[in-house]
Protein 1
Amino acid sequence: QRTPHPGAVALAYAPAGGWGVRWPLAWVDDWFAFRAESHAAFMQWFAAQIKAADPTRPVITYTTFAFANPFEWDYTQQMAVESERVARLGADCDVFGLQLNSTLGDADSVACALDMVRRFGKPLWAIDLLDFSAGTDLGEARLAALTQTVLRHGGSGVQYYCWWGTPRYNYLDLGLPALTRLLTGAAADYAALPPAPAVRTALVQPRMPLITGLPEPANDWADFMGWYKLLARAGERVDVWTSDDLSDLPAGRYARIVVPDCAYLDPVALGALRAAQGAGAKVVSSGRLAHRDRTGRPLAAGRLWQPTLSLPSKPGAEYLGRTYRVPSPSDTPPRLRCAEGSPDETVRRTLWARLRAAGIVAGG
């Protein structure tokens, strides 16, 4: 499918004989949920077989493409790897190992991937940790900062990615002294971490299949990506809940909940947001909220409830600005990059002032 600009996230599904159903989103959404659930169930089965063979050793997952879960929903549905499903079903997985990487030093996708599964309470490791776009050319200091991002967001283990012979993917190119400093520094940083404060902000990821022919545009991935970056720049620590997981949302856990543009939402998930607001959470919606259910049918119930603050525009997408992808020798696959001048800090300052005025936040 042609996209408005390089980096736009979209896939097209058009069966040769036509959809043959009135609500094709129901078909596609059910298929992608089945694929992702089956993949997660297979990983759990595999973990159980390993544990049965040798119960003395921990079972650690290698969840490939976990790096795409935060922002690159097209890659996520292409690969059927949804980290929160793996975490939810992984009873015999002792450690959740997530394949994570930054993009030209931008580690927000690393942080967000950890924020998506930290609430499941298992140890988290960053597997294949590297900068996909710059590789070791990122330099020792910024690679150390990438490691610190993992530790600050709940990670307790790191496995660096050293693909011998691949341009810019070979950590040995840094030299043994730099590698020694990187490893000893990571261990010292981990030992010095203070106890993590309680997370009082939830951010909803309204991930859905990105298909053509919908009655209105799909939930906006860019609004979510922008909101995550916006909250991170404001120093806000968040738990990320996918819209599929909202039925498990504890009503009294969070002081505030942000729901980026989300036209398609299951009624049960909408009910969980209402219950959280009833228990004292301040709910902020951005753009659309619950116009339709996950089949595409109009959802009249969505108009019977008002969040604490409803923002008709999409400030997350406005803050994010233009993104793009460009093939490079090390990107496998190419990652989303923010264009020069993005994100736009003037948007964040304006929005944060409005959130303060509404009593949603205090600082930032």
Protein 2
Amino acid sequence: MTVPHYRWLGEPHVLEGNRLCLFLDPQREWAPAAGSHGVLERLWGWLDDAVAGRHATQTALHHGFGGTRARTEAGAPMLVVRRTLDGLNAGISRIDVKECSTHRYELVSMDDPHVDGLLPGLLLASAGQLPMGVGRTLEEVVRNLEAPWRMAPDLRQRSCGFPTSDMVITQLSSLVQGSEEADRLVIVVAAPNGAVDGPGSYDLMAAHLTVGEARAALANMATGKPGGTKLEFFTVDDVRPEILVRRDTGRPTGWYRGRSVELWGCGALGSWIGELLIRAGVSRLVVHDPASVSTGLLVRQNYAEADVGTSKATALTERLRAVDPAADITSGGSVLASDLEASGRECDLIIDATASAQVACRLDALARTSPPGLRFAQVATDSSSATLGLVAVATADCPPSEVDRRIHERVTADAALEGYQILWDPADDFVTPARGCSTPTFRGSASDVMGVAASAVSLLGGLLRSGRPGGQLFALPHSPVATKALTYIEVQPDAVLTPSRR
């Protein structure tokens, strides 16, 4: 809604001085069936909140630029800003931008020596907010930085901005010197958001243009010639750690953030668990699996046709690096041939998703000699439908075999948990996927094992937060087994440890 004055210029939820932002998210907040009555009710509530000072200033979008995005064309490329802009103050900085693809760019350095192959550019950090927006042309951007309020036609107040046009002209002239007309450069504009303090207090806009267009703009600014050099704006994906609020904040998977994890087994469960761990923010992940990807595995494992013939560990490593290039992801080959002592020293958690008795024995041996802070987890599903799951957590004083035994005893003793007995005594209905020496395997689709893997990762996060050994038994909603959907079994360590029945 537009008002005929600018008395609210610069206030949160006011766009470019005279437009009231009644709906922050129209998709959820605006019901068209309510008609004009609904709009008027919303306006009354907006005015009531404004007078009482109840507007949430930190949710005001792009507050440093008058609450609006720069005008980007449909399909405009995206500039990702993930690095912390250390020491950002009003003024001009040299930047380098990496062209990752035709649709994605990334700001990779600020005030560092230029690297060949990267797009050069300038970061123009304004001393104050730009409440009337950033502008559409390079000339407008420079004028708005020098006099941020000049675009409002009925404003008598003028502010002296920084950096000045002379500073921008000098830096831009130096940047284009010796470059070809068709070369491209990037302009990033930063404006302070009045609701935020610290290193993340600047909002960002970005655009790109050719050197030839920049030289034409410099000529216009030097002579005062009217006209303008239209900027091609990026869509800015601002994911700086100082401003980003992760979408999984407050969920059990928060335990994994920044952790070092080893994943043993990259099959039906492990391949999906690996991706979920990376998306949860694991900083270091080592994956182990000696087997190779074959075409039949694509029915339910997290691989693609192009991976066929490569080792699972290598293929999964490449996939996960594509999900998060910043994470340290490596392939560790076979667990049975790995240096388990080194594994125990370098990680926070080891997850066994192999369903292998040999691997379980090695995990048990490692648990008995591991550092106190290292946790161990095992995940499993049933052989008939892959809709039941077990996730168990062990510690140095209560190793995996003991946790497994205690959980099995509880299942055996409780008739309500009888359906989970199949986890220890598999039904004789394995599927043999190919003729010859094909190894029989359990039944289950990608949707089944993905559901079990996803539930296991979330439930495991909660178990790890508690710090106690124990396990969760769970069933997917569509499981054909009639049993309790979720059961937590806590295990109390004691001095007498007996071997597992598995």
Protein 3
Amino acid sequence: SSEIADVVILTGGTDTALRMLEARPEMMLLAETGGKNATIVTAMSDREQAIAHVLQSAFGHGGQKCSATSLLILEDEVYDDPTFRETLCDAATSWEVGSAWNLDTRLGPLSQPVSGDLERGLKELEPGESWAVMPTQIDENPCLYSPGIKWGVSADSYTHMTEFFGPVLAVMKAKSLGHAIHMVNQTGYGLTSGLESLDAREISDWRDSIRAGNLYINRGTTGAIVHRQPFGGMGKSAFGPGVKAGGPNYVAQLMDFRDRVPTEPPADTPLNAPELEALRVALLKRPRLANGEYPTDLTMLLHALASYERAYFAEFADEHDDFKLLGQDNIRRYLPVQAVRIRVHPDDSAFEIFACVCAARLVGCRTTVSVPTGLTLPMVDLLDTLTPAWGAMVEFVEETDAELVQIIHDGETERIRYASPDRVPRSVLAAIGDSGIYVARTPVLAEGRIELLWYLKEQSISHDYHRHGNLGVRAGETRRPVS
């Protein structure tokens, strides 16, 4: 059949997602893909607790959870602590490995015989690496291996950068928390990430700097629960708009929406966002129709500005914890896409161009309005004229489709917004197949609860803030009662 599904949902490997997009660039792919997930252990951690969390995250389910910890990055004081290494290795070798029918088994058979990257990861060492715990094939079963722990893994090495998807843990040394964060982000993946630290300053710095969809603090990195920890990644671990499974927005990307045509004039209510309020005031000074009403595009835009601001401050601007569990924070928050390119098309209306730029600007994206070379659209010039306060946060450029394709290949944008799917050239779609960059191409809406999703990334943070049941300075907080 020549028909193609409207949306394809994938849980699988990064390479699989890329091959699918290369074969069908026009495919709307929503994929949760691979991960080179890391846990950082700092000198300020509870080290025995960290070992318990890391081993369960690395070897539970055979290390074949997509969220499994496969990198363990130790601050130098911890890395050089012989007691930590001895305890980690002793605990790993104590795991019972065997048949899934044996109730004592903690590490059972893998889903298939080892091969490819996993086989190399289990059987080979690179320069500087050594086996702290050497993995062993059990009972000549090609699917059954004991845990392996590689020590002395170097930055940029094969072990550092490659997803193995099995029971092998790579241990790296970091000079500081900042150095450790850099090594995590360096992999390009961003599914889950863990931190073991009791220091509030380190936790804050890590939360602000790590690039991953699901963050775990002083707990394991596996076992996300629907709604409590909506699941999905960033970077090479996600394809699509980054809307999380198990969260309040997931279904929106599977639906088609249309705005209601407003029947009432926009309310003359000042907006709280200064840049949007300045634009609103400037728009109200634009010429009206002979009957005194605003043109349709202007009316829609004024309604959109109010809706965008309501939605932003109600849902997207602040962190949410819908559960308030005793001893555990479960936070849903939204991060602006760092660089958005709004690609103008000759068929775009003034509303579509203005609305896209206003949405991106409101949530804090660095925004580029990309105009095809030689195309003259008065509304683009008008937008530039009416927004002097936006300064460098919104840039206007002229570029051909070929130049836009090169920008995609060079990784100079994180997301592209077109106002309609039929306005996206196939050459641009083919380029994203190589990069995984998301091209948002749903119709532009005045409803902020939907439109703003295309300029944001969701992130889940789960933090066990108690220590062995002790709530510390947070003991007096109002939380959900224990049932």
Protein 4
Amino acid sequence: MPSVTERLREALAPDYRVEREIARGGMGIVFLAQDVALERPVAIKIIRPELSTARAAARFLREARLLATLHHPNVVPIYRAGEAAGFFFYVMEYVEGDTLTERLQRGALKRDEVLKLGRDVLDALDAVHAKGVVHRDLKPSNIFLTQGRAIISDFGIAKPSEEPLHAATTAGRVIGTLGYMAPEQAYGQEVTGVSDLYAVGAVLFESYTGRAWAAQMGESRPNWSGVPRAVVPLLKRALAFKYKRKAALFTAGGVLAGAAVIGSLSFALRSEKPLSDVAILPFAPGPGIEMSGADRLTQLTAIHLGSFARVADQHDVAAWWHEHGPHIDSIPRSRIHELDTQYLVLGVVAVGEGDTSVTVAITDRRGRQDARIIEGVGAG
């Protein structure tokens, strides 16, 4: 059976000569190709064939239309979009250079490099927001570094700022990437350009320090070493949480800032015995997900939730789960009480409908369960 590359090569001939795959994400694949008429390299993005549903195609073409409206030196330009032999595709500039993720693998950036990066990204977002668009998934892997400038890409989950949230996604679903997602986005609430600025803060923190901001979120005193003293107040403001845990009432409606659980439970913490608010059980990997990816989501969920709640020690939880798991429905309420926690959270990570998704179940001490689906989450 012909490979995807071979089939795409045939579908786009003679206009484009497809050479090889250069990147792959949860929804799409990007190929290096040659524009035959103009004799220049281009990047061609397609929907992964196994995920090419009508819904995925609509979102994909919407991304192409958004990119086509953005003419800015720090936003990747798009040349063409269409469908050929069952492939939904668009053609964009081939950006030579590393992504910020690849650059950070070699260590933190120099201070002047971070300042230039920040200016470029903020200039690009200024143009994006002026068009009434919120990116919603800004992260190092979506930022290219080339010829001394930063270029942002991948507007697959961007939305017009005036568009209602439910028009871009499904009720009970939150999309974005853990570690760079603003609190209001994690809560499943409306996002604005300010939400993108939270992601910029996380990106710049990581660029200065070489450490992911997500690893600091559970700390009462984050480690700001590596960030210039004059910049710390700015990043603190960008990364400030807008939602705080109440002393007497803990609302689970969208409580997971990490896995962004959208729930409907509301409960009081009135127990005389000190309990952890929640225990995060190991997420299970579904089809198309490596165990390491599921483990990373578990860790990030616990880290994010630490800013809102008392999270049970993950080592104790893992040991308990090894003995009593893996099916939460089979665990008696008496076993749940052994963890001294109010709620258990368990997730199953999978790829489907063009996105990575997590099915999350919250179970209380009475054994009652509320399950929701979170769409488009990622570990980095």
